[in-house]
């Protein structure tokens, strides 16, 4: 596959992907976790690349979210999903779910989501997920006791890159190799020519090191498992808690991990422990062995009656002869016993095997002396012997465990990937449950929508207090209504539901039908009148918007605030006409619905969010817009209220409740009162 054909992938990233096992499948599956393993790719970049690959695969032109506000609604929806993800990975992976106009892409996610919403987000699973992370590759690992050797300069360069953990040395011949073997516990020769060469030391020939990394540097694999132990075990727990079959045999993984120490060494091998302890305790054990011998000799001397013949005494006194000569003659047996005790102590304390124990005979040997001392040279030989045995044992064990772990490496990566993927599914499942979602119907009947019982989780009130909204639109419509009636919130709800539907996800409604939309253009309310330049550029935007608008959904909130009301009404009317001609669908929230309708050359539908009463001084609103209904605005409602009150007052003064204009006196009385019913009635007529 040509990775550079993926939108957003340059040469460097393409190279990194080419080096990554399974990159193609990962791109196909939107598997951000695997992509993020490519060198130099962050999870964020990996998600962007995964999105690019999805777009390419589905022939998706991109740009569905056509305005800032549309993008904001998507980000908010994504935020709600991401809040329900436990892992960092799932947060990133959710970004690969984006609104698309392409049927095949929407269908793909819908199928996946149908399975996802069935997942049970139990506390146990969520708890276990909190411990799961993308496995990290061990970094900065150095193995000092092993070297690679080659006579080939090209091979030298290649393995130096492939095995940064080891020293790589150039050797000319067997002599060089044998010299190297003296400096390292193990030397791995990489050239065929060294096969069968007899060299002292631990020298192996591995001609294809890249295919045998666990043999060449088992530490790499061990470090991977040691460093990711907690994440792997957590991923196993996730599977167990969720009742899902894991990609790896749990018993084999647990067993292998139990044999591995946190520092990547093999744990629990008695022989290795014995050898390691022997090396560590060697000096202390020798000094104790000396004490044992000397204590024995001291006691023996103390209890011995020594008869010194005159000649001996003379030679001691005159010739400076040493008392040792006496010792050897008088206490030969005791000395032998003391030396034996020292040797035995050393062998026992260090748990030396037979061949190692032979060294003790040379460590404690020689002419009798008191106090007796060990011999340094054989002691050092024993030390070297023990160290070499320890290192060889360690490497052998590492290789053995690494061979077991090699078989578990890929399944373990899958195990974690599956757990992380489950987190993505659970985030969708929790979203769908928390917001009482339903799978929307999507059709190709134009960009209209029909929502029943839609409740927006983006409202500034708790979701439980969100009142359900029914709203259906096809074609171009004005949405009128009282202040704070919920017009903006209705646009938000429509934008959210249409966006989620095009992401392939369930939507927060009792039922929803959504026409396939090519682009969502949602314009938020402008913050006040624009200056000439900004106004011009906004008009240009709308000029672009209305050309080629078929299939677009256009949501616009109070566009009138960009300039003075008279001009605004005419401009909005013009935009509506153009959109209508294009066959686009649009909802324009406006307080100027009447004026716009009058200014428009085509029939413009007007819906309204109306007040149904007053409760404790607050308007009670029916949140579902009434179709083909110009709702009274708040000023109109207030004038109406004042007119009614003035009428009632006037009636009260005349003692004729319920009758506003009975008799000429009453009419005269109100007409002379500037704030009386006639004034308000007059105002009301102007609406
Ligand atoms: N469906 C709903 N359920 C519960 N509360 C709602 C709903 N819709 C709106 N609200 C509440 O009403 C408030 C005002 O809503 P919104 O801003 O959408 O009204 P508006 O008609 O656009 O107001 P304005 O005309 O002032 O722009 C919201 O902040 C929210 O608290």
UniProtKB/TrEMBL annotation:
Residues 658-676 have a biased composition (Low complexity). One of its GO terms (molecular function) is ATP binding. ATP binds at residues 481-488. It holds the Pfam family MutS_V. InterPro entries: DNA-bd_MutS2_arc (IPR012401), DNA_mismatch_repair_MutS_C (IPR000432), MutS (IPR045076), P-loop_NTPase (IPR027417). Residues 474-651 form the DNA mismatch repair proteins mutS family domain. Coiled coil: none annotated. Keywords: ATP-binding, DNA-binding, Hydrolase, Nucleotide-binding. One of its GO terms (biological process) is mismatch repair. The keyword Hydrolase applies. Its cofactor is a divalent metal cation. HAMAP family: MutS2_archaea. Has ATPase and non-specific DNA-binding activities. Belongs to the DNA mismatch repair MutS family. Archaeal Muts2 subfamily. This is DNA-binding protein MutS2. It comes from Halobaculum gomorrense. The gene is mutS2.
């Amino acid at each position: 596959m040509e990775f550079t054909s993926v939108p957003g992938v340059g040469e460097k990233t393409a190279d990194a992907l080419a080096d990554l096992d399974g990159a193609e499948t990962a791109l196909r599956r939107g598997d951000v976790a695997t992509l993020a393993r490519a060198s130099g790719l962050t999870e964020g970049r990996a998600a962007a690349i995964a999105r690019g690959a999805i777009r390419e695969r589905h022939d998706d032109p991109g740009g569905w979210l056509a305005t800032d506000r549309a993008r904001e609604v998507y980000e908010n929806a994504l935020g709600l999903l991401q809040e329900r993800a436990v892992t960092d990975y799932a947060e990133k992976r959710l970004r690969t779910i984006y609104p698309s106009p392409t049927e095949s892409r929407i269908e793909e996610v819908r199928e996946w989501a149908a399975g996802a919403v069935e997942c049970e987000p139990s506390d146990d699973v969520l708890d276990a997920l909190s411990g799961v992370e993308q496995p990290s590759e061990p970094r900065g690992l150095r193995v000092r006791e092993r070297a690679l050797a080659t006579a080939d300069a090209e091979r030298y360069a290649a393995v130096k890159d492939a095995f940064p953990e080891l020293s790589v040395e150039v050797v000319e011949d067997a002599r060089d190799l044998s010299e190297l073997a003296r400096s390292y516990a193990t030397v791995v020769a990489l050239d065929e020519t060294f096969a069968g060469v007899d060299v002292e030391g631990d020298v192996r020939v591995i001609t294809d090191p890249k295919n045998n990394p666990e043999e060449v540097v088992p530490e790499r694999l061990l470090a991977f498992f040691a460093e990711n132990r907690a994440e792997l075990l957590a991923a196993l727990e996730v599977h167990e808690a969720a009742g899902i079959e894991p990609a790896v045999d749990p018993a084999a993984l647990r067993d292998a991990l139990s044999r591995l120490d946190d520092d990547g060494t093999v744990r629990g091998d008695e022989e290795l422990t014995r050898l390691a302890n022997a090396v560590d305790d060697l000096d202390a054990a020798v000094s104790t062995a000396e004490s044992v011998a000397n204590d024995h000799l001291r006691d023996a001397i103390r209890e011995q009656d020594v008869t010194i013949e005159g000649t001996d005494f003379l030679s001691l006194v005159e010739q400076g002869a040493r008392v040792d000569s006496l010792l050897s003659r008088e206490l030969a047996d005791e000395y032998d016993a003391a030396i034996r005790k020292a040797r035995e102590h050393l062998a026992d304390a260090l748990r030396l095997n037979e061949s190692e124990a032979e060294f003790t005979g040379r460590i404690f040997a020689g002419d009798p002396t008191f106090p007796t001392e060990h011999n340094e040279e054989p002691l050092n030989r024993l030390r070297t012997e023990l160290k070499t045995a320890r290192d060889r044992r360690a490497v052998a064990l590492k290789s053995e465990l690494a061979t077991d772990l090699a078989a578990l490496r890929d399944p373990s990566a899958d195990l974690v990937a599956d757990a992380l993927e489950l987190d993505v599914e659970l985030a969708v499942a929790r979203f769908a449950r928390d917001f009482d979602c339903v799978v929307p119907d999507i059709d190709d009947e134009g960009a209209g929508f029909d929502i029943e019982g839609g409740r927006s989780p983006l409202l500034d009130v708790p979701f439980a207090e969100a009142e359900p909204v029914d709203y259906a639109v096809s074609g171009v419509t004005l949405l009128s209504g009282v202040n704070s009636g919920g017009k903006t919130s209705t646009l938000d709800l429509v934008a959210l539901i249409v966006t989620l539907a095009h992401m392939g996800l369930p939507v927060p409604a009792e039922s929803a039908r959504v026409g396939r939309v090519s682009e969502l253009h949602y314009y938020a309310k402008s913050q006040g009148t624009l200056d000439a330049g900004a106004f011009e550029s906004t008009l240009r935007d709308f000029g672009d918007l209305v050309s080629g608008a078929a299939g677009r959904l256009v949501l616009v909130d109070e566009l009138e605030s960009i300039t003075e009301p008279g001009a605004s009404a005419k401009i909005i009317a013009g935009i509506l006409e153009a959109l209508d001609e294009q066959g686009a669908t649009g909802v324009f929230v406006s307080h100027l619905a009447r004026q716009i309708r009058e200014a428009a050359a085509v029939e413009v539908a007007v819906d309204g969010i109306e007040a149904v009463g007053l409760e404790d001084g607050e308007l009670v609103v029916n949140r579902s817009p009434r179709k083909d209904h110009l709702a009274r605005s708040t000023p109109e409602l207030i004038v109406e209220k004042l007119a009614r009150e003035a009428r009632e007052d006037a009636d009260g003064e005349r003692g004729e409740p319920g009758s506003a204009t009975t008799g000429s006196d009453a009419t005269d009385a109100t007409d002379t009162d500037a704030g009386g019913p006639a004034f308000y009635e007059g105002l009301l007529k102007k609406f």
